[in-house]
Amino acid sequence: MAKLDILYFAWVREIIGCDSEQxxxxxxGVTVADLIEQLAARDGGYGQALGDQLRLRxxxxxxxxxxxxxxxxxxxxxxxxxVTGG
Length: 86
Known about the structure:
Structural class: alpha+beta
Radius of gyration: 12 Å
Number of domains: 1
Number of strands: 5
CATH superfamily: Beta-grasp domain
CATH topology: Ubiquitin-like (UB roll)
Largest sheet: 5 strands, mixed
Helix content: 10-25%
CATH class: Alpha Beta
Strand content: 25-35%
Number of helices: 3
Shape: globular
Distance between the termini: 43 Å
């Protein structure tokens, strides 16, 4: 079965305790938000890091996408907090 690499950045990575993992490719029709919700249901820091999707941004195959985007056949999903300049 195809795999999806998930990358975590900044405080998301710190709370979860890892910078990446690999999961089975989700079925057709699954959005980024759906997948984040599934991950947030796990034990450990997943719920704390991923529970409030308003605090998250995502990229599929290194392109920023809204959380309601379909995962499709992407090879990589990056999850991170909003980026701010200063």
